[in-house]
């Protein structure tokens, strides 16, 4: 495959999961679930704040939640405070959309955009970044087990 | 989601080319994608629909335009299904080697 020639300032990821929108919402917003698929991070949501803690309990920062509409839509600020170099960049935006589908499936779409002021973050979250999270989230919900790697 | 759809979608050179184009620059309109291919607009639309059915491409409205994005998650899932098994094996082989070395 050719190398990526420019930074993608809008990234879209999608996965179909055999779970209800309510179950997916829980898995996104409850720290006991997020630590199993989000690089060990415990992520807590309130209707207006998102707080993240690393596996060692240290703060990975917090950001504004601009939309909180369970179990359909969640929009929050993104800052990469887990990495000192990325932490200096401007905030970007993450949108989660959950839509029920036929035969017990739900469609989860993640849009990471407004990355114009955060080129290193854009590079970091693309590639394996969001893919690992969404693939891990799907595996956790469908099998009850986190991914082995 | 049906793996068959992903494999079927990938089993066509034009569709793989469309994915390569989106990898180079994501978020493109049908017109942009069409201009790089020797194919009618209808033909490109048909290929994009197969890619969207397999969730390898996700399209979203941005104002009046519809933009197409490469979604690598289904390919990651194929990776997880097979490659993770090799990784597990390697990890357990290393663990066994360590036990043996420490016992000796």
Name the features.
heterodimer; A: alpha+beta; Alpha-D-Glucose-1,6-Bisphosphate, Chain A, domain 4; seven-stranded antiparallel β-sheet; 27% helix; 34% strand; B: 104 residues; mainly alpha; Arc Repressor Mutant, subunit A; two-stranded antiparallel ribbon; 2 strands; 67% helix
Strand order of the biggest β-sheet of chain B: 1-2
Structural class of chain B: mainly alpha
**Rg of chain A:** 15 Å
CATH class category name of chain A: Alpha Beta
Number of domains of chain B: 2
Largest interface: A-B, 27 and 22 residues
SSE order of chain A, one letter for each helix or strand: EHHEEEEHEEHH
How many alpha or pi helices of chain A? 5
Beta-strand content estimate of chain A: 25-35%
> Termini separation of chain B (Å)?
49 Å
Number of distinct helices of chain B: 5
Nearest-angstrom radius of gyration of chain B? 20 Å
Average pLDDT rating of chain B: 86
Please outline the major beta sheet of chain A: 7 strands, antiparallel
Instruction: State the low-pLDDT regions of chain A, or none.
Output: none
The assigned structural class of chain A equals alpha+beta
């Amino acid at each position: 495959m050719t190398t990526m020639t420019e930074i993608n300032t809008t990234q879209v990821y999608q996965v179909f999961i055999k779970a209800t929108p309510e179950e997916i919402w829980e898995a996104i917003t409850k720290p006991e679930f997020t630590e199993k698929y989000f690089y060990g991070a415990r992520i807590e949501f309130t209707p207006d704040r998102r707080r993240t803690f690393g596996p060692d309990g240290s703060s990975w920062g917090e950001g504004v939640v601009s939309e909180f509409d369970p179990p359909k839509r969640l929009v929050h600020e993104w800052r990469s405070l887990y990495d000192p170099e990325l932490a200096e960049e401007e905030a970007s935006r993450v949108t989660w959309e959950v839509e029920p589908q036929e035969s017990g499936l739900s469609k989860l779409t993640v849009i990471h955009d407004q990355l114009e002021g955060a080129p290193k973050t854009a590079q970091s979250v693309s590639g394996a970044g969001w893919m690992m999270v969404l693939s891990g989230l799907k595996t956790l919900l469908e099998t009850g087990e986190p991914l082995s790697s | 989601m049906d793996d068959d759809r992903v494999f079927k979608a990938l089993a066509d050179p034009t569709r793989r080319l469309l994915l390569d184009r989106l990898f180079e620059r994501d978020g493109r309109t049908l017109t942009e994608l069409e201009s790089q291919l020797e194919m009618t607009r209808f033909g490109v639309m048909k290929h994009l629909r197969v890619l969207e059915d397999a969730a390898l491409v996700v399209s979203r409205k941005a104002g009046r335009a519809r933009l197409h994005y490469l979604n690598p998650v289904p390919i990651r899932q194929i990776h997880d299904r097979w490659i993770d098994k090799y990784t597990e094996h390697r990890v357990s082989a290393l663990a066994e080697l360590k036990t043996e070395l420490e016992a000796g």
